[in-house]
Amino acid sequence: MPPKRSTAAAVGKTLEERRDAARDAALKELKALRADLTTLEAVLSGRRKASDISLFDVTHGALEIFRYAAAVFEADSLLAACSQELDAAKALEYLDRHGATELVKPAGWHWISPKGEMHCLGKAEEPVKAASKLAEILQGGRRSRRRDKAEANNPESTAPEDVADTAQGADGDTGETTDS
Length: 180
Known about the structure:
Layout: H1 4-44, H2 55-97, E1 101-103, E2 108-112, E3 118-122, H3 127-153, H4 164-167
Antiparallel strand pairs: 1-2, 2-3
Helix pairs in contact: 1-2, 2-3
C-alpha cells in the first residue's frame, strides 16, 4: 500500500489535470459557440441563408459548455475539500505526536505541559485550530528565552527610544546655568 501523502498528491494532480482539460475544452466550445451565434445573427438579420446554420449546433455547444464548466467547478470543490481533509489529518498527527488528547469532559483538545498545566487547545471538531494553538504554546516558551538572551547580550535594544528627552527637559532646557 503506497504512503498516504503520495496517494493524496497523485489524486490532487489527477484532479488538477482533469480540471485544466475541462477548462480548455470549455474555452474551445465558447469560441465555437461565438462563431455559431454570429452566424445565427447573420441568418436572422437576412445577410445569410437559413441553410448556413444548424440550430442544433448552437444548443449542443451551450450544453457542452455547461458540462465542461460543471466539471471545472466540481474539480475545484473536490480539490478544496481534499486540501481541508489533508490539513485536518496533518493536524491530528501533530496533536498526537505532541501528546494532546481529545477529552469528553471538559470537551475538546487538551494538552498537559511538563509543568503539569492543562491547556485547552480548542473544540474537538477543529483539530487544525487546536494544532495551531499547540504550536503557539510550544514555541512560546522558546521564543521568550531567545528574546531574553538577546536583550541581555544587547542592552542597547532595551534603551528608551526618546534619548533627547533625557539630555534636556521637555521645555528644551538642559538644566545648565550660564553666567553672563
